[in-house]
Amino acid sequence: MTTKVAVVGATGKMGQLVSRIIDASNEYELVASLDSKDPLSDMLGAQIAVDFTLPSASQGVVDYAITHGINVLVGTSGWSSERVASLERKITGNLAVGVIIVPNFSVGSMLVTAFSAMAARFYESIEIIEAHHAGKVDSPSGTAVRTAELIGIARGELGPVAAPHTDQRARGQQVSSVPIHSLRMQGIVARQDVVFGGNGEVVTLRHETSSPASYEPGIMLALAATRTARGVIVGLDKLIDLSQGTA
Predict the structure, then answer these.
(1) What pLDDT does 246 receive?
(2) Residue of 136, 165, 181, 238 marked catalytic
(3) Res 187: pLDDT
(4) Is 165 designated active site?
């Protein structure tokens, strides 16, 4: 039996990609494709809503979907830890709905974020440089924000990273004490460098996307998990057993 899916933000690059993936699959049926002009009620009848809209619109899409008992897969940036916490409060006790928020659908990007959290305990100086195409409307990216938040959690009692002169604008935006520097320019799809500075050494963890095809395995994995999701789940890493190295 196929799962009925509505894609919100279907005219964007990622919306078009997930729509093609759904059309090519025997497991899913695309029942609605919404753009900014369409009423959210067009998603009614779907079992899953996939949100690839804008940060300003995403929360409204999610609120509408969960109010009507539709599980949601969110690929839109802008879901900070505060917004996630607010969403968790909204659906506390609602055992019939789930939301999966994925800052980046690339398995490679997810691994670099996980590796960065592992390394965070061993270095005091940590900064992130992320780059995306000129048309990306938000900065820092959701991937960079998620990476910085996990670094902050991993450091725990070690406290904030060493980031001097952060009162200067050129030092980037701090998230969980980690400075993030954003590039928006032509010729780039997506790239993130997490740079760790230590005594006499520098370690750089990099992920670079050269084609949207890198997102396809992660999208399929997230769609399958959204079918039965309950509560709020953030990150592709929550859907993969990293301790065993297999999905």
Answers:
(1) 45
(2) 136
(3) 92
(4) no
